[in-house]
Amino acid sequence: MHQSQFPHVSLIETNRGRAVLQPGPSSNPSVARNQANRAQHATDLKQKLQGFSTSAKEGLAAREENNLPSISGGVPFVLQIPDQDGRIMDFVAKKLNLEIVAEYEDGFLIVSTEDLDLQHVIDLADDFANEVYGSGAMASILDIDGDHTSVNRIQRIIGDDLMAQWPFQPYQDLMLDVSIEVASFNPPPKPRGITSRTREEVKARKLAEHQVALDAFYQAWDEKRLQRESEIERLVAHYGGEILRITEHETVDFPDSFSMRIRMRGAGFFDLITNFPSLFEVTVPDEFSLPVSSETEVEVGDDFELLAPPFDAPRLCVIDSGIHENHRWLAAAIDAAISKCFLPDQSDDDVADYVRGGGHGTRVAGACLYSDFVPSTGSHEVPFWLVNARVLDDNNDLPKRLFPAQLLQTIVEHYLLNSGVRIYQHSIAGNRACRTTRMSIWAAAIDWLSYHHDVLFVQAVGNIDPRGAVNSPGILDHYEAERFYPEYLREPSSRVANPAQSLQAICVGSISREYFEDGDRRSVAPSYLPSSFSRTGFGLWDSIKPEVVEFGGDYVADSGNPPALSTPPEVCPETVRSTRRGGPPFASDAVGTSFATPKITHIAGQLAALFPEKSPLLYRALIINSARWPDWAEQAVVEDRPAIVRSIGYGVPDRARATENTEHRITLISQDTYEAHAREGLVFGVPIPESMRRPGEDFAVRIDVTLSYAAEPRRTRKSRRGYLGVWLDWGASKHGEPFDEFRTRVLRDFEGGEDETNDGNFSWVLGNATCRNGQTNGVCRKNGTVQKDWTIARSYELPDMFGVIVRGHQGWSTRDDETANFTLVVSFEALGVDVNVYQEVRAAVEAEIQERQQIGLEALL
To answer: What is the dihedral of CA 222, 225, 226, 228, to 10 degrees?
Structure first.
């Protein structure tokens, strides 16, 4: 790419230390009552434990008598424990010696034990009654359900959709995805006792010791996984079932669990669900619904040439229905040598797009290259290559034999290792709202791959079809129920589809463009509002989903009741079409979030070319930071803002804002990808020259701050804080606050002590805590792994150095060596005045860096 005359500038990292964090939750009243009534609570626990022991032994004896496949790992049961912090989890795992299978809502845990007598737990209950030191946490056990076949356990495993069919009919054929816990609360060891001052010989010895411990951990993990996998294989074979696979491996592995897709009779699934102790989730595979258009005729000329990118340009992988690779508008930018088909029973080189109506992957690939419109004349060059991964069949469907999470792992490992591909365009999503009980296997795979391989997925949020399916009404179904646009977009059934709840992916919705009206036919959505088919948020744990939107078209409705929906060219994005079955090479004849998503991938490709050595975490941060709400949203009343965030997230990104600056706008980026530990704070500063802060120079300044981070996920956990090993948020300076005061306020090393929820006194649009600060009640920016906020300030309110702290918080990991990786972006823009913000701030940054280098040099002399 050409070098901008206004390149991004580096943020200054000023300090790191212990962050000032919000105090933990107050004690639970039920736990307090148990502490006050120790004898009665101990008696209740012992009675339930003894009942479990008796029924568990009888159940195992009956299983052996009926010659059913053996299952190791003991027997599962349910505990209710509120406030499941690290201390309580450690007590359950180590003191009670129970294997924690998974967390669920309302403070419930599924645990398992091979010690069916549980005498040591009963003894602890007696100790609690007698106030023996070390037994106090028994007060946190509110209830014990020892019946492993009870609804209390089963409904948490299979969810509402399958619970309606429970118990399954013995001969009912089912295909389900199952998840098995392996090491939910036992993370791998990390090297200890190594600092920047550690001598090289000591460091080498400690690293060697750590490698031995690490090898032993993974060997034990593999042995446990293989044992549980073998037991499932025997059970499935006993019932004449099949474990589906696309490679030699049938499982998808996470740090705490593995998952697989099984086809089996209802009797087999009944046995698996009721008796397998480490089973924590069973779900129905997603159905898919992707847009397909009808044939269209458009006249085009021959005066067009696509120029090949440089050989070493970045590569973007299009995971879709294949691509018409010799298409004149695509061929020169496709690295055809590494194209691959991942469909079962198809040859690896069968990578064409066979979908009727101009294809699907071909259209997506074209939108990655051209974004807004397809040029018809002249020459065109893009700074990146496309890679073709065909996974959808001729009907634009993902075959059931393809387990999506396993498929994505296979694709990333193939293209990252062989070709260094770090950006993945993924317009495939289910046709119903995602579940909200825990992160799905598919979405967790995206999060795991993003963290471990430093890759970026750009994900469509999915479409609301004209006609829906069971428990997933379509647009016309809503109209017949007298739910009209935009109200039906706020229905739970319109929530983003799996895997768009992924915390690490950039999830993309669609907006309309120009309003269409012709006789009795009108666009459903007004101009630049959410498309009538675009799914909305929030995501899991009230995270902001979609993060961004782009033009993906809209439906046109007539005056019928219900109306007929159509897609005339005036409401459709222009896309490249496959011409395998005839038709023009490009046209405006299809709509969907599938075609909005690659427009964001286009910006990611531009950033990868501009910053080839940087992490995709930075690309994500710059894309989100560049996003703006349309005028109608910026001008909306405060009460409407939660609905705005749910439908369009942070707004519409802009390539120019993401990749470069102007005289009036400057973007500052962190120099590297940083690591943050729990309870650690990293402070960054942007010096604001006095010439900008003088009262006589008063003007409006828009400030945007975006944090993008990744951390180790665990599927057995139920909350955002438990799902990630370490989670992050950020805070900022106050009006005119001296930088030394800011550091003192946010870092304990400087004797700080203020509550972390204090977000400064700039009027941030979203704020850092739901219903506590910010202008948008009910929305909290810190619930996702990309966190943006913005404010309009007066120039005289700016401090001498605008400070931002990134804070680490304890997630599932209780160890100090677990970290999250992050990048940070801050931008300033002068509004409505001719002020050279770029040059003034850049000069101040360079002067600050030079001064710090001089101080450092003098300290060495």
So the answer is: 160
Task: Dump pLDDT digits (tens) for 457-509.
Answer: 999 999 999 998 878 999 999 999 999 999 999 999 999 999 999 999 999 99
Structural tokens at position 463: 């479409």
Token representation of residue 390: 């065909």
Task: Provide the terminal-to-terminal Cα distance of the chain, rounded to the nearest Å.
Answer: 42
pLDDT score at 752: 47
| pLDDT cut 90: percent of the chain above it | 74
Is residue 746 within 8 A of residue 683, CB to CB? The reply is yes
What DSSP character marks residue 798?
-
pLDDT in tens, 722-750: 899 999 999 999 998 999 999 999 998 65
3-state secondary structure of 28: coil
Q: Residue 500: is it exposed, middle or buried by C-beta count within 10 angstroms (0-12/13-18/19+)?
A: buried
Helices 616-626 and 593-610 sit at what angle, rounded to 10 degrees? Answer: 120
Which residues are CB-contacts of 40 (< 8 A; sequence separation ≥ 6)? none
C-alpha 180/C-alpha 164 separation (Å) is 22
Tens digit of each residue's pLDDT (9 = 90 or more) over 182-213: 976 666 677 777 766 778 888 788 888 878 88
- For residue 249, CA distances in Å to 235, 348, 414 come to 18, 18, 15
Residue 450 and residue 502: Cα distance in Å, rounded? 10
CA atoms within 13 A on the CB side of 236: 20
Kindly tell me the sign of the dihedral angle through the C-alpha atoms of 95, 96, 99, 104: negative
Work out the angle between the directed axes of helices 593-610 and 361-370 (0-180°, nearest 10): 40
Q: Tell me whether the omega of the peptide bond preceding residue 562 falls within 30 degrees of 0, making it cis.
A: yes
Q: Rounded mean pLDDT of 657-676?
A: 95
Residue 384's closest CA among 411, 339, 416, 422? 422
Q: Which helix (H) or strand (E) holds 791?
A: strand 786-794
pLDDT for 24: 63
Structure tokens, 456:
């970026």
